[in-house]
Design brief:
Elements lengths: L5 E3 L8 H7 L9 H18 L5 E6 L2 H12 L5 E6 L2 H12 L3 E6 L8 H9 L8 E5 L1 E2 L4 E2 L2 H10 L5 E5 L11 H4 L3 E5 L10 E6 L1 H9 L9 H8 L10 H17 L1 H21 L16 E5 L6 H12 L1 E3 L10 E5 L6 H17 L8 H11 L1 H7 L11
Parallel strand pairs: 1-12, 3-4, 3-5, 5-8, 8-9
Antiparallel strand pairs: 2-10, 6-7, 9-10, 11-13
Bound molecules: pyridoxal-5'-phosphate.
Length: 404
């Protein structure tokens, strides 16, 4: 298919030209001085994206799933009790990973149409009769449902009960797209992957470990080798790794961080808010339902759209891909066939969102969903013209948009 591919799944996201060009270069010696300088410059800048001054950044050639494992085996010992909540595919899978590694996981079933609230954590901690929990696992932005959880309130719930549990937060689909404040909100350990808000290809896991997580790793943890962050932190001090790093991805990371800082992290978040709001307006115009039923928890990196009864989202996704070269996210596990997901994160602008919505409309129509063509696109355009969107973009409300 000619023209630009529309990869509008909720990650991996489109990799910007600048990042591609930065990686299109000769591999260098990962034990030489140029590499050491690159890494020494990168690590403190990655910490800024996590909004952490206290935390230490650890990078692995791995995916987000590896980041889960790294977080768990460095801080917890087999048999340790972990509290986790099932409010989507990834929160359930994170808990499953912990179970597979030999931890004693209590998984609390919750609605898949909301984020995790502080009160739900408080309630479970109050009711605990067994051994104290050593960690609470949270997915900040549930990529399968498009609902965000209140990490600050969850920390407050843990503290209110005088619990020692480490707060481990997955920000795979929120970091660098949705505001996240590791130090201020009190997370002990945060993890992410390269392929979403960071605008890189898949292949890198990034962690930021706060002082309590580092201390837990020194005292104990599980048997570990590749994921042991102690030798990594030691070698990183001089800009090196105890293994062969993903050299070219690190050059890409340098470029992606430069792009985020040039735009300004807060502007990156408001851009995501504007784009997400326009997509939600489009869904409203189609008279379809958003899976997340708590407006305060709407995700700004993706929207999961519910299908009318009797229609399968796989058909919409198939048509979008085959006819228009537009990739949309599928419904995962228990909501397979019931939703499709529009990814609106990473390197993305207003026109790309409008094109995506135009493609979704045609695929919906073709799949037999009774929508009015153009209705969602027009609603999104109105949203971009609206005062709220213009205020977020820093355009004076009285100034015509043409004068931008
Ligand atoms: C919230 C969340 N956590 C973890 C993962 C797993 O990451 P990966 O597929 O990179 O292993 C994903 C993947 O999409 C995710 O969205």
């Amino acid at each position: 298919m000619s023209g630009r591919p529309f990869l509008q799944i909720p990650g991996p996201t489109n990799v910007p030209e600048r990042v591609l060009r930065a990686m299109d270069r000769a591999v260098i010696d990962h034990r030489g001085p140029e590499f050491g300088q690159l890494v020494q410059g990168l690590l403190p800048d990655v910490a800024k994206i996590f909004k952490s001054e206290r935390g230490k950044v650890v990078l692995y050639p791995s995916s987000g799933t590896g980041a889960w494992e790294a977080a768990l085996v460095n801080t917890l010992a087999p048999g340790d009790r972990i509290l986790a909540f099932n409010y989507g595919h990834f929160s359930a899978q994170f808990a499953e990973a912990a179970r597979n590694l030999g931890f004693d996981v209590e998984l609390v079933p919750l609605s898949w149409r909301r984020g995790l609230a502080g009160e739900q954590v408080a309630e479970r901690l109050r009711g605990n009769r067994g051994q104290p929990f050593k960690a609470v696992l949270v997915v900040h932005n549930e990529t399968s449902t498009g609902a965000v959880s209140d990490v600050k309130a969850i920390r407050a719930a843990i503290d209110a009960g005088h619990h020692e549990a480490l707060l481990i937060v997955d920000t795979v689909s929120s970091l660098a797209s949705i505001d996240y404040r590791m130090d201020e909100w009190g997370a002990d350990l945060t993890l992410t992957g390269s392929q979403k808000g960071l605008m890189l290809p898949p292949g890198m896991a990034l962690l930021c470990a706060g002082p309590r997580a580092i201390a837990a790793g020194e005292r104990g943890g599980s048997p570990r080798n590749f994921f042991d962050w102690r030798p990594i932190l030691k070698d990183n001090a001089a800009g090196f790794f105890p293994y062969t790093p993903a050299t070219l991805l690190l050059f890409g990371l340098r470029e992606a961080l430069d792009m985020l800082f040039e735009e300004g992290l807060e502007h990156v978040f408001t851009r995501h808010t504007r784009l997400a709001e326009a997509v939600r307006k489009a869904v409203g115009a189609w008279e379809l339902e958003i899976l997340c039923e708590d407006q305060g928890a709407y995700s700004n990196s993706l929207t999961a759209v519910m299908m009318p009864d009797g229609l399968d989202s796989a058909e919409v996704i198939r048509i979008a891909r085959e006819r228009f070269g537009l990739d949309l996210g599928v419904g995962l596990s228990q909501i397979k066939g019931r939703v499709f997901r529009i990814g609106h994160l990473g390197a993305l602008n207003e026109l790309e969102v409008l094109a995506t919505l135009g493609g979704v409309e045609m695929a919906l129509r073709e799949a037999g969903v009774p929508i009015t063509l153009g209705s969602g696109v027009a609603a999104a355009q109105e949203s971009f013209f609206g005062d709220a969107s213009r205020a977020l973009a820093g355009v004076p409300v009285e100034q015509p948009i043409a004068a931008r």
